[in-house]
Amino acid sequence: MASATRLTFNQVNGNVIGTGDTTSSPNYGHRVTATTMGNFSYGAEGGFTPNVTVAYRANNPSGTFPGISTWGTGYGNLSNVVWSGNLQSAVPNDGYVTLTADAGFQVSLHSFRTALWSSGPANYTDISVRDGLGNVLYSTNAANPVGGNVLHDFTSSPLTAQQLEIKFGQGWWIAVDDVTFSQAVPEPGTMLVLGAGLVALARRRRATK
Predict the structure, then answer these.
(1) What is the pTM of this model?
(2) How does pLDDT run across 49-102, given as a tens digit for each residue?
(3) Which CATH class is domain 4-208?
(4) N or C: which end of the chain has fewer CB within 10 A?
(5) Across the strands, what pairs with 108?
(6) How high is the mean pLDDT in each 10-residue block of the chain (209 residues)?
């Protein structure tokens, strides 16, 4: 797997990343160029992603912003995960991890893991991946193995776009870990199609003037 980054949500010293770290700028996972950057560390997956930015957000029915936090243990057999809330506002909010490639690049999602809190419900609700246009590229309500996790694996055919957004819902019950992604320059054929589309659009605009 070339030029890939894995978000482990660990710090170099092994402690859990705090809410302030994951919501600050630059965010955890932002333009990764080494397995260790400042106080952050990343999984070694054969390369880096200097042309990809990462953002985190959460929404809930009350309209407030509960934030994105990390947690050490208790979500299946995962350690150091990210979940959509904090201790003061554990409400049924949705969490999002958004990967955005620079102009002229694409981001490919290879895999991620999800798990439920030890006393949580049996199923996930609306775990999905969408592109920047809102198209659903992946969706599942996979059953949760007790004490384990679910691997959402796309390594044989990575989900690829200029922007990808992972959604994980059902409040603080669900956590995400090991988000693995890579970056690439679009294939020449894709670039030709995009170029032809832009040329056609320019001609249409000139014809309507």
Answers:
(1) 0.81
(2) 999 999 887 776 555 555 677 788 889 999 888 887 655 555 557 888 999 999
(3) mainly beta
(4) C
(5) 160, 182
(6) 80 50 64 87 85 83 61 89 66 81 96 87 79 96 80 96 89 87 79 46 51
Q: How many C-beta atoms lie closer than 10 Å to residue 139's C-beta?
A: 11
Query: Hey, which residues does 160 pair with through a beta bridge?
Result: 108
Domain boundaries, the chain: 4-208
3-class DSSP state of 3: coil
In 3D space, the residue among 88, 91, 76, 68 whose CA is nearest the CA of residue 16 turns out to be: 68
204: which 2 tokens?
Answer: 């249409």
CA angle, residues 65, 66, 68, in degrees to nearest 5: 110
Cα gap 183→178, rounded to integer Å:
16
Q: Which long-range contacts (CB under 8 A, 24 or more apart) does 64-73 make?
A: 64/89, 64/91, 66/90, 66/91, 66/93, 67/19, 67/23, 68/19, 68/22, 68/23, 68/95, 69/18, 69/19, 69/22, 70/9, 70/16, 70/17, 70/18, 70/19, 70/22, 71/16, 71/175, 72/16
Kindly tell me the sign of the dihedral angle through the C-alpha atoms of 148, 161, 55, 165.
negative
